[in-house]
Design brief:
The chain has two domains: 14-128, Ribosomal protein L17 (50s Ribosomal Protein L17, Chain: A), CATH 3.90.1030.10; 141-168, no CATH class. It is mostly helical. Helix 3 packs across helix 4 (83-96). Helices cover 49% and strands 11% of the residues.
Length: 189
């Protein structure tokens, strides 16, 4: 039985799993939106939510006491190991989510990946909503049917365009007026 065994193992050892989640967290903090497998996105979401809450509480505490909460920054740095990400988290993100009581991230499922069929999702910060990523348009079956080649190697679509172009040129009267270049006035003294 799995009583009390929360979390996904992601097919990794404990140290590898910790490194993976740290890397995903740094990428999310830097780029505000990442694309990964659904399982990794759900695991990273739990980690990032705790980091953002920690930073938000530290920033609120700093505003009251007028001094930096160095301990909170060091604890977050111990997990992220990226100074730029820590500074972005405390300076930019924590201030933006100060009024939000939780739920800082969202997971948007995209379907299956082409190569291995893994479920793919986007993990993004809610307050930095840049819109959902649109799926690539699927090729239409009708387009493939119109590509049959004739005896001279032209497709049916090209033949139809040529006939249409010939009909338009025959219907319009020919008005060919040559364009005369403007005469330049020369300065003669």
């Amino acid at each position: 039985m799995r009583h009390g065994n929360a979390g996904r193992k992601l097919g990794r050892t404990a140290s590898h799993r910790k490194a993976t989640l740290s890397s995903l967290s740094v990428a999310l903090i830097r780029h505000k939106k990442i694309r990964t497998t659904t399982a990794k996105a759900k695991e990273a979401r739990m980690v990032v939510e705790k980091l953002i809450t920690r930073a938000k509480n530290a920033v609120l505490k700093e505003a009251d006491a007028k001094i930096k909460d160095v301990h909170a920054r060091r604890e977050v740095f111990a997990f992220l190991r990226d100074r730029e990400a820590v500074s972005m988290l405390f300076n930019e993100i924590a201030g933006k989510v100060a009024s939000r009581p939780g739920g800082y991230t969202r997971v948007v499922k995209l379907g299956q990946r082409q190569g291995d069929g893994a479920e793919v999702a986007i993990l993004e910060l809610v307050d930095y909503n840049t819109g959902q990523e649109k799926a690539a348009p699927k090729p239409k079956a009708k387009a493939a049917a119109g590509r049959k080649r004739g005896p001279k190697g032209k497709t049916a679509a090209k033949k139809a365009e040529e006939k249409k172009g010939e009909a338009e040129t025959a219907a319009t009267p020919a008005k060919a007026e040559p364009v005369q270049p403007e005469a330049k006035e020369s300065d003669s003294k």
